[in-house]
Design a protein that fits this description.
By secondary structure, this protein is of the alpha+beta class. It contains one helix and 13 strands; from the N terminus they run βββββββββββββα.
Length: 191
C-alpha cells in the first residue's frame, strides 16, 4: 500500500480493516484479496551503443534481456539501456536502482527515467545489476546480472602486446646483425 495509507489504518475485531486516504475511508477484508506471489521483474527493452538503438534480433546483439553476457568492440565503449517493469500494477512500492559493478560502487536511482548510460568505459568486464528497495528497506533483485565485456583495442590486447614484443625483438636482432656485418666488413678492409 506504499506510503498512501501510512499511519492511517484500523484493524477491527472481525479482521476487516479501515484505512484513510486522500479521498475518504476504505473498508475491506484483507482475506478477500489474492496474494500475488511474484515480484516485479525488470526487462531490458532496448540497448544503445554510441547513441544508436541496437534492438534484439537485428543481428548485432542477442536478446540482451535473456543474455547472460554481451561483448562490445572497443569502439562501442559508450552504451546504455532502457528498461521497463511489465506487470507492475500502478506505481511501485519501491525505488529501482542499478549499477555497473566493476566500474562504479554506488547504486543509481533510475526509478523515474528507466534508463542509464555510460560513456567511454575502459576495456574490462563489468556486471550490470538491478535492485528494488521498498519503503521498509527490504530489497530484491528483479533481473539476473548481465555481464558486459568491453574488449581492448588490438594493440592493447594480449595478441597485440605479444606481436609488438616480437617486432621489437626481431628489429633489435636485425639491427644487431646489420651492425655486426658492417663491423666485420670494416675489419676485412683494414687487413
Amino acid at each position: 500500500l506504499c506510503n498512501v495509507f501510512k499511519k492511517s489504518a484500523l484493524k477491527l475485531s472481525d479482521g476487516t480493516m479501515i484505512m484513510g486516504s486522500e479521498d475518504g475511508f476504505i473498508h475491506f477484508d484483507p482475506r478477500d484479496f489474492e496474494q500475488e506471489s511474484r515480484s516485479v521483474r525488470v526487462t531490458i527493452s532496448d540497448m544503445f551503443i554510441g547513441g544508436e538503438s541496437v534492438s534484439p534480433g537485428d543481428g548485432k546483439q542477442p536478446n540482451f534481456d535473456l543474455a547472460k553476457g554481451i561483448t562490445l568492440a572497443p569502439n562501442q565503449a559508450s552504451f546504455g539501456f532502457l528498461f521497463s517493469e511489465p506487470g507492475a500494477s500502478g506505481e511501485l512500492c519501491g525505488r529501482l536502482f542499478c549499477r555497473l559493478k566493476g566500474y562504479e560502487k554506488s547504486w543509481k536511482d533510475v526509478s523515474v527515467q528507466h534508463a542509464i548510460s555510460w560513456y567511454n568505459l575502459p576495456p574490462a568486464t563489468y556486471t550490470l545489476q538491478f535492485k528494488i528497495v521498498n519503503s521498509d528497506g527490504w530489497s530484491y533483485t528483479p533481473h539476473p546480472e548481465l555481464e558486459i565485456t568491453v574488449e581492448p583495442r588490438f594493440w592493447r590486447s594480449a595478441i597485440g602486446i605479444i606481436l609488438a614484443i616480437l617486432i621489437i625483438i626481431v628489429s633489435a636482432g636485425l639491427l644487431f646483425l646489420l651492425f655486426y656485418t658492417r663491423a666485420l666488413e670494416k675489419e676485412k678492409q683494414k687487413q
